[in-house]
Amino acid sequence: MGAWDGDKCIAQLHCYRLRVPNGSPDLWPAWTRPAYIETMLNGGLDITGPVWCHACFHVGRSIESFARSDEPDAHYFGRGIGTALARSSIEWAREHGYAAVAAPGTPANLFTFAVWAGGLPWTTYARLGFTEVATETGDDLPQWAKDNAPLDVMASVKKALADGRPKREFHSRLMLLRLMNARQADPIT
Q: I want to staple 175 with a disulfide (CB 3.0 to 4.6 A). Which of 4, 28, 46, 130 is the partner?
């Protein structure tokens, strides 16, 4: 899905389809999807039918900005573009008969990580009616927060730790919005 500023694409949301429970093949092979999606495939979430999954958001990325550098155009940040893409994706999934929408929610209040990882915070998904179904485990920092992130992301991690944020709050959460028989509770209708 894409967001446009006139005739310029300024954001993208990459999505894919899963069929749950195992019985029909997924459109994407297992090695290309995040491991926590296995929770839905094998975790007994009582979902029957296709699941629409959000992979990553790229707000502020256009062909022009990518040609200059790997840095997104910050002019488009904080304008609700990612949330609007999520809402459109949810509506598309509803209209096409999906049973649920799954999404990796990035840690709350870590904007630099969300931009780098291409995700929305789990708190944004919660406001859209999603519930948490799995969290990366461990009381230690996730690997990305130890040594794999860019300098600005690492600086925000160090500041959050200095401010007393527990290490377990740096883990992503798998968020799920059930679409079948959920119209009345869905805040986006």
A: 130
Cα–Cα distance, 93 to 133 (Å, whole number): 19
Model confidence over 35-54: pLDDT tens digits? 556 655 555 567 777 889 88
The region that residue 32 occupies, defined by phi over 0 for left and psi between -120 and 50 for alpha, beta otherwise, is alpha
For 134-153, b where at least 16 C-beta lie within 10 A, e where not — what string? bbbeeeebbebbeeebeeeb
DSSP-derived secondary structure letter, 147: I
Which tokens hold the place of 184?
């009345």
- Topology given in CATH for the domain delimited by 2-138+171-180: Aminopeptidase (3.40.630)
Instruction: Categorize the per-residue pLDDT at 126 as very low, low, confident or very high, splitting at 50, 70 and 90.
Output: very high
Calculate the CA 4 to chain-centre distance: 20
Q: Find all residues with CB under 8 Å of 118, minimum gap 6, and list them.
A: 14, 55, 56, 57, 58
Phi-psi region of 155 (alpha: psi -120 to 50; beta: other; left: phi over 0): alpha
Q: Is the pLDDT of residue 21 over 60?
A: no
pLDDT tens readout for residues 127-182: 999 999 877 777 788 888 887 788 888 999 999 999 999 998 888 888 999 997 54
